[in-house]
Design goal:
It is a single chain. By secondary structure, the chain is α/β, with parallel strands linked by helices. Helices cover 29% and strands 15% of the residues. It has nine helices and ten strands. The chain has helices at 76-87, 104-108, 120-127, 142-145, 173-186, 222-238, 255-261, 274-282, 291-308, and strands at 64-70, 93-97, 128-129, 132-133, 147-150, 156-160, 191-195, 213-218, 243-250, 266-271. The strands form two sheets. Strands 5-6-2-7-1-8-9-10 form an eight-stranded mixed beta sheet, sandwiched between helices. A two-stranded antiparallel ribbon has the order 3-4. Helix 3 crosses helix 5. It is globular. It starts with 63 loop residues before the first strand and ends in a 19-residue tail after the last helix.
C-alpha cells in the first residue's frame, strides 16, 4: 500500500513522475459538456508528498471539478471551504455556494458576494422574462462581477447562488437558466468546488451534472446514510461516475459502522473535531482553525487523484491529531 496517498500500489501508480493529462483510466476529461475544459495550466503536477515545504505542492492532476453534497448538518460546507482554499495553491478556483443557507463565505473567511437569485434585474436582462426565456444566456462577465476573491494569491472566486426567488413571481425559468449558465461557466475554471444544497432534490436540476467527481459527506446517522444512498442512485442516473463518500464527525468506534453501511468508496474518515466546532462557535473560519482538517483535505484530494488515475482501491483512513483516539 502506498504510504503517501493510501492507495494500493499497482500498475501506473507512480508518485515520482510529473503528471500529464493522458490518463489511462475510465474517467475521461473529454466530457460531453457544452463548454471546453482544455486549459493551459500555470502549475505543474509533480507530486511531492513532503508536507511542510515552503513551495506549494501539487496534490491533484487538474483540472478538477467537485460537487460536495450530503444531508444537512454533516459538514459539507466546511469540507467545501477547505477543498476550495487548498485548491487555490494549485491554480484558479471557482467555489459555488449552491446551498440556500449561503454560509460558504463565512466558512472560507471571505466577503459574502451578492446572491444571484436576488438580482432580478440581472436575471431578466440576461435570460429575459414574460414567457420568452433564453436557455443559454451570456453570463461570462457575471462570474467576475458578482464574485469575491479568496485563498492563496486571491486565485479563488466565490459565487453565491442563493435561495430560489423566482417562485414569488410565478416562474423559475429565467432564474434557473441564469444559474445553470453560471455553473457551467464556473466549471470552465481549472478547479471548481460546488457546495450543493442538502438532500437530493437539487440533483434533479442537473447543476452538478458536469462535475468530475461527487463527494457525499456522511455523518454518523441512519438518515445521513440513507441520503447518501439516494444521492448515489441519482448521480448514477445523471452519468456522474466518480462518486465517493467522506465519513465525517464520527467519534471513536462509529466510523467502521458508517463505512460498512455505505455502498460508496470512502475516501476519508474524519473524526469529530473540537477545533472545527470551536471555530464555528466563535465565528472563525474553520479552514484556518484545524490542522486535522487540513490533513484530511490533502488526503481526500490525493485519494480522488488516485481514483482518477485508475487505482482500484483507496483505503479509508481515520485522520487523527496528536493525542487523539484512532479507530
Amino acid at each position: 500500500m502506498c504510504e503517501e496517498c493510501g492507495c494500493h500500489e499497482g500498475a501506473g501508480h507512480d508518485h515520482d513522475h510529473p503528471h500529464d493529462h493522458d490518463h489511462d483510466h475510465p474517467h475521461d476529461h473529454d466530457h460531453d459538456h457544452p463548454h471546453d475544459h482544455d486549459h493551459d495550466h500555470p502549475h505543474d503536477h509533480d507530486h511531492d508528498h513532503d508536507l511542510g515545504d515552503d513551495e506549494p505542492e501539487s496534490v491533484v492532476d487538474g483540472p478538477l471539478r467537485i460537487a460536495v453534497t450530503g444531508k444537512g448538518g454533516v459538514g459539507k460546507s466546511t469540507l467545501s471551504a477547505a477543498l476550495s482554499a487548498r485548491l487555490t495553491r494549485e491554480g484558479d478556483v471557482v467555489a459555488v455556494d449552491a446551498d440556500p443557507d449561503m454560509n460558504l463565505a463565512a466558512t472560507i473567511g471571505c466577503a459574502e458576494p451578492p446572491a444571484i437569485t436576488r438580482k432580478r434585474e440581472l436575471i431578466e436582462d440576461r435570460a429575459g422574462g414574460g414567457g420568452l426565456v433564453r436557455l443559454s444566456p451570456d453570463v461570462e462577465d457575471v462570474l467576475e462581477s458578482h464574485s469575491t476573491r479568496f485563498g492563496d494569491g486571491d486565485r479563488g472566486r466565490l459565487l453565491t447562488i442563493g435561495a430560489p426567488e423566482g417562485a414569488n413571481t410565478g416562474c423559475l425559468c429565467a432564474e434557473n437558466s441564469v444559474v445553470q449558465s453560471l455553473v457551467r461557466s464556473a466549471l470552465d475554471a481549472d478547479y471548481a468546488v460546488l457546495d450543493m444544497e442538502a438532500g437530493i432534490e437539487h440533483l434533479g436540476r442537473g447543476t452538478a451534472r458536469d462535475v468530475d467527481a461527487m463527494i457525499v459527506v456522511v455523518g454518523p446517522s441512519q438518515s445521513a446514510i440513507e441520503t447518501a444512498k439516494g444521492i448515489r442512485e441519482l448521480a448514477t442516473e445523471m452519468g456522474v461516475e466518480e462518486v465517493y463518500a467522506v465519513v465525517n464527525r464520527v467519534r471513536e468506534g462509529e466510523g467502521e459502522a458508517v463505512r460498512e453501511a455505505l455502498s460508496l468508496p470512502v475516501l476519508e474518515t474524519v473524526p469529530y473535531d473540537e477545533d472545527v466546532a470551536a471555530a464555528a462557535l466563535s465565528g472563525t473560519p474553520p479552514v484556518d482553525a484545524s490542522d486535522r482538517l487540513t490533513v484530511a483535505v490533502e488526503r481526500i484530494l490525493r485519494g480522488i487523484d488516485c481514483r482518477i488515475d485508475g487505482a482500484d482501491d483507496v483505503t479509508s483512513r481515520f485522520v487523527s491529531a496528536p493525542g487523539s483516539p484512532v479507530e
